[in-house]
Amino acid sequence: IIQILAVENLNVAGGEIKTPMKKYSLRTEGEFKNIEDIRNVVVDTKNGVPVYVKDVARVYMGYAERSEIVRLNGENGVMIRINKQSDKNTVIVAENILKRLGEINKTLPKGMEITPIFNSAEYIQNSIFNMVKNAIQGGLIAIFVVFLFLRNIRSALILGLSIPISIIATFVMMYYFDLSLNMMSMGGLAIGVGMLIDNSIVILENIFRFRDKGARPAEGARLGADEMGMAITASTLTTICVFIPFLFTEGLAGQLFRDMALTIAFSLLCSLLVALTLIPMMTSRYIKTLHKHYKGRLEFLNRILDWSENALKSLENFYVKAVNWALRHRKQVALYTVITLVLAFVLLPITGMEFMPEQDEGRFTVLAKLPVGTNLETTEKIMQMVEKRSMQVLDKSEYRVVSVRAGYGTGFAAAFGNTTDHSGTIELRLVSPVKRDRSQQEIREAMRNALKDIPGVDFNFSFENRSLLGGGAAISIEVYGYDFDKSSSYTQEIYEAIKPVTALKDIDISREEGLPENVIKINRDKASKMGINASQIANMVKNYVAGKTATIYRYEGDEYNVMVRLRESDRSTIDDIKRLKVNTPMGVSVPLANLIQIETRTGPTAIERKRQERVIYINCKAEGRDLRSVVMDIQERIDKIPKPANSSVIISGAYEDMQETFFDLGLALALAIVLIYIIMACQFESFVSPFIIMFSVPTLFFGVMVFLFLTGTTFNVVSFMGVLMLAGIVVNNAIVLVDYTNILRARGLQVHEALVEAGRTRLRPILMTTFTTMLALIPMSLGIGEGAELSAPLARSVIGGMSSSFIFTLLFIPVVYSVFESVKERIKRRKEKARLNKLIQG
Fold first, then answer.
1. 94-103, 188-197, 553-562, 678-687: lowest mean pLDDT where?
2. CB 474 within 8 A of CB 466
């Protein structure tokens, strides 16, 4: 039948016929026009009577067998996934797709609609909006802090102008450097909004100091800007230079933070330009009197400003006493500083380390694995049970769609995990975190508890954002070994050993059991005596059971495969296969059972390879504990298991990414410290003053670790980025302090007097720059809103580091300065004494 259908369904060109006047082409037409043509094909003739296809077979238009089941919110459906090109803007592509879907929906039949169930652009837009909101709130907080310190609304407004002007100028630079507005670049602006005002604060405060001494507005603006111009230039360059390594880093750290680093650098350069030009000009033109008494509706401000002034004076008096005490007890101050550094490193393992903070993107996947060989119908029933329980766990206000897939699937379906009949996937698309009471993690735990008692099914819960950040499985144990049995046995031993590890979830071995199969073994002696070979038997079984496409039926512009095979009732059991008959060359039909034996066994296992070696993966996740401590427990248990010959184990996944990224950030930090020192050495034309200032860098670790510990935040790649930023920020206060101390020393003051006076004079600008940066980051540090999980650790580490470093800067740096001056004086006296002794002896 297969052969006859193939030769009957043809259109064949037959050449040309020429007449005296015309030329005709010949074409034999034999293609099927309709289903009836196929039914009426003659396949044989018996006693002169034709036998048609319709006499021996049922011919009908049908569907291919289902290989995948898809359900959406309890109803049958179809899912379409659309991926953008790598160089295109996600938001623009999504908007164009939604616009086109609106047009398509109008043309659909009644009862059918296309509904977007997930749009990654929404998360991006909401995250950026959240960043913008945090930046605006932070900017307003910074302006209010400045107002409390300077007690002048016009001053606060002038300083406030430096923020939007710097941001607008930053957008221009981002455009020319082809940087898009994304979570990282907007995060850079939100983080830097408090620092944008720092340079202007230093300049404005110094202008006010000259104005207090009687200088005219224009003269005070010029003198104030001139005196602090080099200091703020150096402090800005030291902050910017920490981001230079990201221009050359090719690893994950560079990919993650390059946009953020460039955005912060651009914004700081713009803020420096504003501070040196716009602020002095506007101050001289629009601030004629420094302090004024508010009347009418603003009279209540007088009490606030009087209180702030009294508080600042009391703080100045307290600081003068503190710095005097510190200079008299230098050894004690140094000892306390060392103790805090030790405490910081003690807190590191307690706080915990991980790769990336877990984000609540409002979507996660549950992969269900049934025993290998389970048919699609059974998998469908199990997945319907899973779907029912999931819908019971979830409140209707918490989710948009619950999609269930079961079976093999093709295209994206197979790419996203459904590769066999025995597996199924349930994907949950939740509403925005701000619109539900439970977090994504809490919903996951509720789902885990609801599904744990379903027998014979292994569940794996995963959040989709891990793959976007390079993690894949949080922990992936790679077991290398060539021998199948030994490596499988060793892998199973590791699996059993790590199961008791606290907080380890969803342990899964990548190498599954082989698919059960019935193997047909041919008796070659019997077959050859009857003139039959193995190929005939194999192809016959394949055609009868799997079927074969005999030809293609074309109808109204579409093509349909014409599949020929036995009806299902004739091919459903092993006995049906044995009853099949094979024709011999002598024209005799022999039952297949006479020529074969059928054995049931396990089919071959899929082989995974990495680094040109066979590998088995044990994938798992750490929940409720930091990644590093869990990996340490796993490594300890693996080390106790005897390792087979020629086998090896590597722990990778997010843990490997964490190690590589931490190493890259560590190199960037080391390079940044070197660049900071070089810039300051050029600024001060000295090697000693920059060395003194660098003592402020280690003090930031204490505040970082304490603040992370108190807020329950792990030390991860994002918080490490905060430490890197702090290396360039914390030296700014020390630069201002040491620079003014050197100015006072040049005016004839002794070391002790110069340090006390410099500290008292620069206390207010140091407090203002510190508090504006710290308080402006409070909205971001709260971690509220979409995408906040990614930026909150950075904000928290910056707040913690600045809170400790500015205290140590005000007390420890004067002590270090004093010690160096004492050493210099001692060396000078020794040289003078040696010179006098040489003269006397001469």
1. 188-197
2. yes
Please, which pLDDT band fits residue 749 given cuts at 50, 70 and 90? Answer: confident
Report the alpha-carbon distance of residue 352 to residue 350 in Å, rounded.
Answer: 5
Written as six digits, the tokens of 632 are 């340490």
Cα R_g (the chain), whole angstroms: 38
Between residues 289 and 714, the one the model is more confident about: 714
Confidence of residue 292 (pLDDT cuts 50, 70, 90): low
Selection from 399, 425, 322 nearest residue 81 by Cα: 425
Any idea which residue has 């029912």 for tokens? 388
| Residue 505 DSSP SS3 | strand
Pairing relationship of beta strands 648-652 and 581-583 according to DSSP bridges: unpaired
Closest to 820 (Cα-Cα) out of 760, 723, 751, 766: 751
Instruction: Please compute the mean of the pLDDT values over residues 178-190 and round it to a whole number.
Output: 77
In this structure, of 187-201, 202-216, 531-545, 678-692, the range with the lowest mean pLDDT score is 187-201
CB 134 within 8 A of CB 784: no
Q: Please, which residues bridge with residue 68 across strands? A: 407
Angle at 325 between CA 321 and CA 327, to 5 degrees: 120
Distance CA 532, CA 154 (A): 102
At 409, the pLDDT band (50, 70, 90 cuts) reads low
pLDDT at 466 over 70: no
Count of alpha carbons within 13 angstroms of residue 74, beta-carbon side: 7
**Quick count: other Cβ atoms within 10 Å of Cβ 614?**
16
- Tell me how crowded residue 134 is: count the other CB atoms within 10 A of its CB: 29
Q: How far apart are CA 112 and CA 105, in angstroms?
A: 8
Q: How far from 607 is each of 419, 483, 484, 616, CA to CA, in Å?
A: 15, 11, 9, 8
Q: What is the pLDDT of residue 335?
A: 93
Q: Which of 621, 619, 421 is nearest to 515 (CA)?
A: 421
Closest among 779, 476, 705 to 610, alpha carbons compared: 476
Residue burial 256-276, b: 16+ Cβ < 10 Å; e: rest: bbbbbbbbbbbbbbbbbbbbb
CA 7/CA 2 separation, integer angstroms:
9
Confidence at 21, pLDDT banded by 50, 70, 90: confident
> Residue 368 in 3-state DSSP?
strand
How many C-beta atoms lie closer than 10 Å to residue 541's C-beta?
A: 17
Decide if pLDDT at 293 tops 60.
no
What is the reported pTM?
A: 0.77
DSSP state of 468: H
Give which of 156, 382, 381, 398 is closest to 290, Cα–Cα: 156
Distance CA 373, CA 516 (A): 6
SS3 assignment for 262-289: HHHHHHHHHHHHHHHHHHHHHHHHHCCC
C-alpha–C-alpha distance, residues 243 and 240, integer Å: 6
- In this structure, how many other beta carbons lie within 10 angstroms of the beta carbon of residue 745? 17
- By the 10 Å C-beta count (0-12 exposed, 13-18 middle, 19+ buried), 302 is classed as middle
**Could you tell me which residues come within 8 angstroms of residue 422 by beta carbon, excluding any fewer than 6 positions away?**
369, 370, 371, 372, 373, 374, 379
Distance CA 190, CA 791 (A): 9
Instruction: Identify each DSSP E strand in 161-248 by its residue range.
Output: none
With cut-offs at 50, 70 and 90, classify the pLDDT of residue 467: very low
Residue 822's SS3 state is: helix
End-to-end CA distance of the chain: 125
Q: Which two tokens stand for residue 716?
A: 């991860």
Question: CB within 8 A of 524, min separation 6: which ones?
Answer: 534
Q: In degrees, to the nearest 5, what angle opens at C-alpha 109 toward C-alphas 106 and 113?
A: 65
Distances (CA, A) of 543 to 10, 406, 567, 576, 586: 22, 27, 12, 14, 22
Token pair listed for 318? 């307290």
